[in-house]
Design brief:
The chain contains 22 helices and 29 strands. Strands 14-15-16-17-19-18-25-20-23 form a nine-stranded mixed beta sheet, with helices on one face. A seven-stranded mixed beta sheet has the order 13-10-9-27-28-29-26. A hairpin with a 2-residue loop joins strand 21 and strand 22. The chain is α+β, with helices and mostly antiparallel strands and about 850 residues long. Helix 16 packs parallel to helix 19. Helix content is about 25%, strand content about 20%.
Length: about 850
């Protein structure tokens, strides 16, 4: 059977709810749930207690972003006299959908909402898998975070590419919720998705065919302003492998920097449908009617230039491999959909929601927005992000009752476009770009930064709990480019450290958790590639160069200052911060101890003593040979033979800094090495002779122009526990000796079986906890908790990062990183030979 395009008949056979329910922001006074529907409706959301009694409710009309695509994030809010939600209780929710009478669709709502006892989420989704068996909860359920930090449990992760290798780690959360669904103090209470929830620039060809087709039918066929052709073209006229020539970095073209442009998303409909396909299986065709390798080759062959038969075979193998990975992805989507319905989720973009390297440097930011097609694509990406991710993060920016709010104004511009041309008119497009913060190339070039227009959406936000506060930063749309061109940016403009971190609601003794979409700092291979970017990019493209918080750097010093401002200083006790990030497609942990008597850019004496645990979980679904190589090789791994040269050994790092602007000045000498401040006001202490410093080394002849004002001790952490089988299965007997001539089919099968078994054993060996491991490089998810100390009054405060993943055979496994948050950590003692500041 050939692949069938989406049409009126196939759509009519599908449920009205195309994606959702997705549980979003939850507070004691409100609950927000996101839906995507194929018909216009008024959606009433009801929050229920564990017995099914209504607690409070709310309603909202969907917005029509296309003839057959309607989206809403509906919020139920507590009214006067109604009870607020409390910890240590399980709640449920349900929704009813009321359709306008002119659609000739029977209403699914009862005559009286107030007296309703039968709800319609099940009807609207065709009884999708949204609840867990053997529980008293017959509707999606959730619980609030606890008031006791030792009962808090947060899941987090990033980077979920449908055609990425391996199994989707987000589906692991389904088991975790089911195991403790009846225990509100033990089940995961929040899910943080920390970037790259979709991939716009690295789309499988067969998936792009489905997205383009769905977009055309649910919305419209968008007319795109192409460069340099200057003749607009419909998105449906740009099949897989036809798009690179429009977007690649050449003079006169849009100059997107991603390596994966052949199947890049372009239209608003494609971006929106990518979310629907990523979060729900409703629009996916059955496996036997998905686009096949032959379908892709047929539609794309005119746009592909291949030099020989081997290239052609490789081209087809790549298409087939992507299809097989898509089949794996689709298979667990019902589990993912149930996860998203049963835990409050919070999201923030990284770059792939728009395109790889979005706003990475001044050069990339300028060229993305210097052409009509570039600005249109960024506009489409941020509109889709705002509707599908950000609305649920901050429903207060989209209130129906306040037309002046940026989110509400955006919805008004998007709702019920009269024609496709209405959305892309210059007047409306300029208004939308202003609201979602798409600069012009001229603005980037003139101001050397990307910034927000007055009255536009704010993408950073906080999540307020009784025992914790989560600050979700936006480090993509507030960047500055002090060095211009292709040089590393400052990920936040100076004023934004205060705006996004310091001036958030008071901490009042709660645990501080900060989401940074990129690492602070990343693993050593990325840091080495960044330091030697001209050399390393000639060997291989390193996409994460210039994306992280490098140490040392001015931006890192400002970050440390802002975090210490937020948590304050207490003599004799360390303040504590947890950083969560993803981005790099591996999971690891690090510990940084920051001490100061005068911090960078302080105007007077200000002490600091902060321990920062960085917990990285990535990717949900994008493991590669390199990430698995990092799992084998640890923090010193780097691809190719230059790895040992580029990447230094894994040792504790020490830095000292001064509260002075860096201008290349010499600040002194330490163990024979001259210390210069070049682009940073802090420097790493590395002795001139690798044998120094040690107790038997030469007499210290250190001297400094002035005493250091602050210092860092930085450690990459190893795993402290692993739920991985320690024994390996025995190898099966080798296949029989091959006779002369071609092997039989059975002999080939047996050889392949032994190869797969040996491969899986090899991978299992790499996970064996008997071997010290640093990094998890297969698809994974982070599970954050705060175990009760053995001696609560005197024992160390520990943050535990449990990284969950699967073995090649599908078994769920985990490893732990336990981070000691006290000033003194016996596992990582400070070396007295290295100078440090004492606050």
């Amino acid at each position: 059977m050939t692949w069938q395009y989406l049409n009126s008949k196939t759509l009519s056979e599908k449920p009205n709810v195309l994606a959702g329910p997705i549980l979003r922001k939850v507070t004691p006074d409100s609950v927000t749930v996101w839906f995507s529907l194929q018909k216009k409706a008024t959606v009433t959301l009801m929050v229920l207690d564990s017995t099914g009694k209504r607690v409070f409710d709310g309603k909202r009309e969907t917005i029509a972003v296309g003839p057959n695509l309607h989206i809403v994030a509906v919020t139920a809010r507590r009214k006067a006299g109604e009870s607020e939600l409390v910890e240590n209780a399980v709640y449920m929710y349900d929704a009813v959908f009321e359709y306008p009478t002119d659609t000739n669709t029977p209403s699914l709502i009862d005559d009286s909402i107030a007296a309703a006892t039968t709800f319609t989420t099940a009807t609207g989704t065709h009884k999708a898998l949204l609840t867990y068996p053997n529980t008293p909860y017959d509707r999606p359920s959730f619980c609030l975070p606890p008031a006791n930090i030792y009962s808090l449990r947060i899941l987090h992760g990033s980077c979920r590419k449908p055609s990425g290798d391996g199994l989707d780690a987000l589906a692991i959360a389904d088991t975790l919720i089911e195991e403790k669904v009846n225990s509100p103090l033990q089940r995961p209470q929040q899910l943080l998705m920390t970037g790259d929830q979709i991939y716009a620039d690295d789309v499988a060809a067969s998936l792009l065919m489905m997205l383009t087709d769905a977009a055309k039918f649910l919305m419209w066929d968008e007319l795109l302003p192409l460069v340099p052709i200057q003749t607009p073209m419909l998105a449906s006229g740009l099949p897989p492998f036809s798009r690179r020539g429009i977007l690649e970095m050449e003079d006169g073209k849009a100059k997107f920097s991603s390596e994966d442009l052949s199947c890049h998303l372009m239209s608003l409909g494609e971006y929106l449908c990518m979310y629907l396909f990523a979060w729900s299986d409703v629009l996916w065709p059955p496996q036997d009617v998905m686009p096949t390798k032959d379908d892709v080759v047929k539609i794309s062959s005119a746009f592909v230039t291949l030099d020989n038969k081997n290239d052609y075979r490789g081209f087809k193998r790549g298409i087939e491999n992507d299809i097989q990975q898509l089949i794996k992805f689709r298979a667990t989507l019902p589990n993912v959909r149930r996860v998203l319905a049963n835990i409050p989720s919070y999201m923030i973009f990284d770059d792939h929601e728009v395109t790889d390297d979005w706003n990475m440097t001044e050069y990339t930011a300028y060229h993305l927005c210097a052409t009509d097609i570039g600005r249109r694509i960024v506009q489409n990406a941020l509109v889709a992000y705002s509707l599908c991710q950000h609305w649920g993060n901050v429903p207060e920016q989209f209130l129906e009752t306040d037309a002046s709010l940026p989110g509400t104004r955006l919805l008004a511009l998007l709702n019920s476009p009269t024609t496709p041309a209405d959305y892309v008119s210059k007047e409306k497009s300029d208004a939308i770009c202003s609201l979602v913060n798409v600069p012009t190339g001229t603005e980037v070039e003139k101001n050397h930064r990307v910034d927000h227009h007055p009255g536009s959406l704010s993408y950073n936000y906080t999540i307020e709990g009784t025992a914790h506060q989560i600050i979700v930063t936006d480090t993509r749309t507030f960047r500055t480019y002090p060095w211009g061109g292709g040089e590393a940016p400052d990920l936040l403009a100076p004023a934004q450290f205060a705006a996004q971190i310091v001036k958030t609601p008071a901490l009042d003794g709660r645990m501080l958790i900060v989401v940074l979409t990129t690492n602070a700092p990343p693993v050593q291979p990325i840091r080495a590639a960044t330091d030697l970017h001209e050399v390393s990019n000639n060997i291989k493209h390193f996409p994460d160069i210039h994306e992280a918080w490098d140490l040392p750097s001015v931006a890192f010093d400002r970050l440390a200052k802002a975090l210490s401002d937020k948590v304050g200083f207490s003599q004799g006790a360390s303040a504590k911060v947890v950083l969560l990030s993803g981005d790099v497609h591996t999971a690891f942990a690090s510990r940084l101890h920051y001490k100061a008597t005068k911090r960078f850019e302080d105007t007077g004496t200000q002490h600091a003593n902060v321990v920062i645990a960085q917990l990285v979980a990535s990717s949900f679904k994008k493991q590669t040979g390199d990430t698995i190589g990092q799992q084998r090789g640890g923090y010193q791994y780097a691809p190719y033979h230059l790895g040992p040269v580029m990447v230094p050994p894994h040792v504790t790092e020490y830095y000292i800094g001064w509260n002075v602007p860096a201008s290349g000045q010499k600040m002194g000498e330490w163990y024979g090495r001259r210390l210069y401040l070049d682009r940073a006001s802090s420097v790493r202490l590395i002795p001139a002779n690798p044998a120094w410093p040690n107790p038997s080394g030469p007499p210290q002849e250190d001297w400094f122009i002035q005493s250091p004002d602050f210092s860092y001790q930085f450690d990459y952490l190893t795993m402290t526990n692993g739920g991985v089988p320690k024994t390996l299965q025995p190898l099966p007997p080798p296949p029989p000796w091959q006779k002369p001539g071609a092997p039989t089919k059975d002999e080939l099968k047996e050889t392949a079986h032994v190869f797969r078994f040996a491969r899986d054993n090899y991978r299992q060996h790499n996970l064996d906890p008997a071997v010290i491991r640093h990094i998890i490089g297969v698809n994974n998810m982070g599970d954050l908790s705060f175990p009760i100390p053995p001696a609560p009054q005197t024992g160390p405060f520990i943050v535990n990062h449990r990284v969950r993943f699967r073995s090649p055979g599908g078994e769920q496994l985990f490893v732990d990183y336990a981070v000691n948050m006290e000033t003194i950590d016996s596992a990582h003692p400070a070396d007295p030979n290295y100078l440090q500041v004492t606050p």
